Amino acid sequence: MKGFLFRNFDILLLQKTKLISNFCSDMNKPKKKIILILLIVLLLPILFFTFREITSLSNDEELIEEIYNNQLQSILFSVNQYSDDMVRSWTLRISSILENNLNEKNLEKDLESLFRESESVKSIFVSDTLYRNQFYAAFEENGVVLKNKNDFYVGMAQSSKDILLRLFRYSESDFKKIEPVIPDSGNLLHFLFVLSGGKFCFISIDKDLFVQKTLSPKVQSVARDQFIVNISDSVSGRIVYQTARFNPNESMLKKNLWLIPGFQIGIELKGETVTDLVKSRTSTNLIIFLGFAFLMLIAVWYAYRNIKKEVELAQIKSDFVSNVSHELRTPLALISMFSETLELGRVKSEEKKNEYYGIISREAGRLSNIVNKILSFSQIEAGKRYYHFKNFVLNDLLQKIYDTYKFHLSNKGFDFLFSQPDCQVLINGDEEALSEAVINLIDNAVKYSGEIKSVTLRLQINNDSALIEVEDKGIGIAKEEQVKIFEKFYRASKGLVHDTKGTGLGLSLVKHIMEAHKGRIEIESQPGEGSLFRLLIPLNKQE
User: Fold this and answer.
1) Which of 5, 204, 12, 8 is nearest to 91 (CA)?
2) Contact 318, 16 (CB under 8 A)
3) Which site from 69, 192, 490, 525 is most exposed, i.e. has the minimal number of CB atoms within 10 Å?
4) Does the pLDDT value for residue 5 go beyond 50?
5) Are residues 451 and 488 in the same domain?
6) What is the span of the domain harbouring residue 248?
7) CATH no. for residue 184?
8) In a domain? residue 49
9) Is the same domain home to 391 and 449?
10) CA separation for the pair 523, 504 (Å, rounded)
11) Do both 141 and 198 map to the same domain?
């Protein structure tokens, strides 16, 4: 009955192992789903941000353009208002001079003062609408020239009848307005306005001098250190005045001056044009976008790596369950079989009984070793593995291990060798934990040995460290697997190492023990040539 139960238990374990294997084979499917989800998480924000940036770029350009247009309008209004005020002040002064000076000498003197103070004013012409009473004054090298007639201005007045009629209508409504008149007269600009008594007046100015002498202080004040402002001829493109040098290839925002037809005022941000600002904004957003995309890539990569690790860990744990099931099944089956045989009294000779008792004892020890590994690992995972450090002679510990395993390995056909230095090697550590680490390495050397059954245990001193080496002539470990074998549950993915059953916990426990002793574990191995594991433990320097 007992044998039947154990056989059923074996069948159940085998079925569970197959189910776990099938589960592990399907683990790649979630990986693909995870990659797809992470790509979607990455691409959606990037595509959204790109679409938003493209659609908003033209709006931003229009907004920046509008801001600078408003700024230009403000400057243009200020300059034009100042121009109007200056010309209006000249008209008031001329009206005052003509009305208050009956003496020709005083008139000439006041007019000379006006011409000298206002360098851009070149001539003045006053007349009634019937052209009977004409007055002309001009400033030349020898002084003021006065005349009672000037046909040029008479002809210009006759060609500007519509403007004169409009100005007289304005005057009747007590509104004084000044109109520019541009005949074919070179660089001169003529302002037309009406005086009291039905008279009208022309003031002729030099446009360039007006801009350079009269308007320049105002332009400088409104430009400050923020803008480059220039005034140019819109026909020829000639620069009449500019607050600072600028690149003529760059486009400036321009508007026409009110009182000087044909002249334009332009504005440009100092150091950067509107185009530069748009380009700078685009570049900045592009950098931010690329940085955002890079951070997203890092985040996705980090998430994928962690999820991948979790999936791999789940698969490794499944393999661990499968391996442990196999490891437990074999000793349990042997113990069951031989104990049942002894219990039924089928063995008559004492020699056979002792052989079976030895097998039961050996398999019970093997079972106990597997359980101890699992318990130790469980304590490490829970953070409850405690070490009891004390000073002891490492030679004695290794000698005990050698003496214990020598007979057992000899029976298996192994050459088990042990070498140590003449001096005592004193360390501070946990004897039980270090013994567990060395035994794990010896068990692996035995388990993974090939045709050459040889295990060597060495103790040496290397600088400030005690050096324990366990060497075998077994199947070896591939280079790409050597870093991973110290991870929990990890077992070689292919080759003879993978074919040999195990829990995948032994080397992980050894590494943890070494780290607790502030030491390290190293490996040298070639497939088919064997492996050399090296434990380095700090010496007790005080002793």
Assistant:
1) 204
2) no
3) 69
4) no
5) yes
6) 211-275
7) 3.30.450
8) no
9) yes
10) 16
11) yes
